[in-house]
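Appendix B, example 12.
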Amino acid sequence: MTSIPRREFISISTKATAFLLMPSPLATFLNYNAMTNKNHFDVIIIGGSYAGLAAAMALGRALKKVLVVDDGKPCNRQTPHSHNFLTNDGKAPAEIAALANQQVSRYDSVSFLSGRAITAEKTEAGFKVLLAGREIFTAKKLVFATGIKDLLAPISGLAECWGISVIHCPYCHGYEVRNEKTGILGNGDTAFDFTKLISNWAKDLTVFTNGTATFNSDQIEKLLEHRIEVIDRQIEKLEQSDGHLRHIIFKDGTSAAIKALYAPAPFEQHCKIPESLGCEMTEEGYIKIDSSLETTIKGVFAIGDNASKMRTVANAIAMGTSAGMMISKKMIMEAF
């Protein structure tokens, strides 16, 4: 047997130990595979309010691995009650969302992550989503249930009243303020058409144009015929208490008592990622979808307020359920 000098033996032993401590190609692959499996899903849903949760439930029941990413800021978080939702009429939106979350959480294949998506990009295998914390997740399909952002007029007190006594939809809130002293914040053709609609719920009705009125002579005549006053003084602020309107204060120092104010507002998409992916938008600013709720980018779906002018909890849930069923069916057929 050939002997090995002690110094050379120590050198060889040190190198061998170092080699053994290094991650092997197999170990590296297994670690990478575990990481990617952990962060890979069949479907990622961005937005975990009513539409997103409904989609997650339908997908979970179809045995799909789902990640719901949500930042916990639904657009109706100030609204005290939700209406026109059979079996849930009059419940607080937060109560409905909490129960929905609890029920969806029963499905083991559905995971939740509190956070905000920053970017998303299409890949050969599907989509890659980057979150605010720099973590990356991947999925075969992508669903946006991100809602819209109302662009409120810069009037002091209006934001505090939004969803409480300053409202946008008579079908959501009109019954509760029926026959109250009601105002409409708006001007021109849009305000005139909206006034006709609101006259069904309120007889003591005033239009506040917040500046020179732009109604034509026929519209003015029709408003007078229905005893609807038009006030064109500029508004200084809304006097309110805990979101409940008391008076509209004008810049000339005068005021008008008011209980409810309809203020249809323009909007923008709450999340810009669909546009960055190339999803087409409608002329009104909604994400364009087909009958299966798929956008113009294959594999990307949009549900709820971001894709529909029917801004109700019931409609959001209906769209979410439909999307979940359609997406799971597509995936099943693609895999067969």
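Residues 69 and 113 are 5 Å apart (CA to CA). The radius of gyration is 28 Å.
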